[in-house]
Amino acid sequence: MNRFYPPATWKDEEDPSRHYYLEGALPLEQIRVFSWSWLQKKRQDYTVRTDLNATLFASWRIILLLPAIPTGFAVKYTNQSPVATFAVNFVAIIPIGSILDVVTEELVIRRGADEGLVLIVTFGNAIQLVITVIALVKGQPSIVQTSLVGAVISNTVLMVGLGFFLGGLKHQVQNFNRMTTGSTFNELVLSIVALLIPTAMAHFQYIDPPTIAKFSRAESILLLLSYICYLVYCHKTHKKIIHKLNRIEEGRTREAQLGHGDAWRGIATIGATMAASAGGTINRTAAMRQIQHIPLPKISSRALVITLILDTVLLGFCTTFAVDSIDGLTQKTVLTRNFIGLILLPILSCNLHAIRLAIKNKMTDSFAINVGSSIQLLLCILPLAVIIDWIRNDSLMTLVFDHFQVVSLIVSTMILKYITDDGKSNW
C-alpha cells in the first residue's frame, strides 16, 4: 500500500504567518516545521562547476547563442559590414538577456515574492535602459523614442496576448483580479496621457523647441515622482490590501482547478488538512494555499555579483556595437529606423517571466509584470532619458512623439482595457 506523502512546511522567520511547502518531502507522521535558515544551510555546496551550470548552461538559448558574444566583438573590431555587425550583436544580446533572467530568478529566491515583482520588472527592462542610454550618448533620440514606444506596445499587446494564448491552452478559463489590474492600468493611462500634452503643444500650438524642451524636463520630474508614489502605493501603503485581493482570486482559481478534476491537489489538500488536525502545524487556511515547489538558490552570492557585473558590461558593449551600425544598416538594406526601433529592438526586452506565470495560471502576476514594465518604461526610463539629455546640455530628447507613435500607444491601451475588463481570459 502506497503511503501518502503530503507537503512539508516551514515558516518564514521574518513573517511567521507565511508558510512554504515542499512537495512530497516526508511521510505523514514525520511532518515537522523547518526554518528558512535550515534550508539555506542545506544548500551551501557551491562550486565553480555548479555556478557555471546555473548560469552559462542554464538553458538551450544560452548554450547555442553564447558564441555570438565574442563573434560580435570580432566583427566590430575587424570593420565588417554594418549589416553583419548589427545582426551578430543583436543575436549576442539574446544570451546576455537570458543570463540576466537567471540572475533575476536567483535574486527573487533570495529576496522573496514581495520584492520579486519589482526585480523582475526592473531587470526585464535592463536591456531597454541600456539601449536608451547608449542611443542618447550616440545622439540618436529617435531610436530612444521608437524603441520605448515599441517596448510598451510589445508588453501590452504581444506579451499579454501570448500569455492569454499559451495559458489558455493549458487552462480552460483563467481569472485575474480586476481591482489590482485596474489600478496598474489607470497608472498606464496616466503615463500615456502625460505624453499627449507636450505632443499636442508642439503640433497644434506651434511652441518653439526651447520651450518644449523646458516643459519636457519639468514634466519628466513630475513623472518620476509619480512613479515613486506608484511604487510606495503598491509595495508599502496598500501592500496588504493588494495581497488580500490576490489571495482571494488565487483561492477562486484553485477552487476552479479542483472542480475540473485535479485529483492530486485535492488529495494533497485533504492530507494537509489531516496533518493540521493531528499536529496543529498547518491551519486550514494555509492548507488551502497552492501547493508548490519552493526552489533553493543555485548560485553562490559571489558568483551572482560577478555574473551581474560581467553581464551588464557585455550588454553595454554589444548594444553600443548594434546602435553604431544602425545608420549603415538603414543605408544598405530596406529596413528603416522606425522598423528597427518599433519592432526589432523591443523584441530583446520582452519579459518571458510573464509568459511562464501565465502558463502556471498566475494571470494576476503575469499581467502585473507586463503592465508594470510598460509603466516603468513611460514613468521612469523615458523621463530619465530626458533628464540625462538635459545633463548633457542637449535639447534633442523631449516628450514630443509623432502622431503614429501616440496613436499606437492609445490603440494598444484601448485593446488591453477591452480584453481585460471582465477579469477572465482564454486562448
From TrEMBL:
Q: GO molecular function terms here?
A: calcium:proton antiporter activity
Q: GO biological process annotations for this chain's record?
A: intracellular calcium ion homeostasis
| Membrane topology field | Multi-pass membrane protein
Q: Which residues are listed as membrane-spanning?
A: 60-77, 83-104, 116-137, 143-167, 188-206, 218-234, 303-323, 335-355, 367-391, 403-420
Tell me what this protein is called.
Answer: Sodium/calcium exchanger membrane region domain-containing protein
Q: Where in the cell is it found?
A: Endomembrane system
Q: Which UniProt keywords apply?
A: Ion transport, Membrane, Transmembrane, Transmembrane helix, Transport
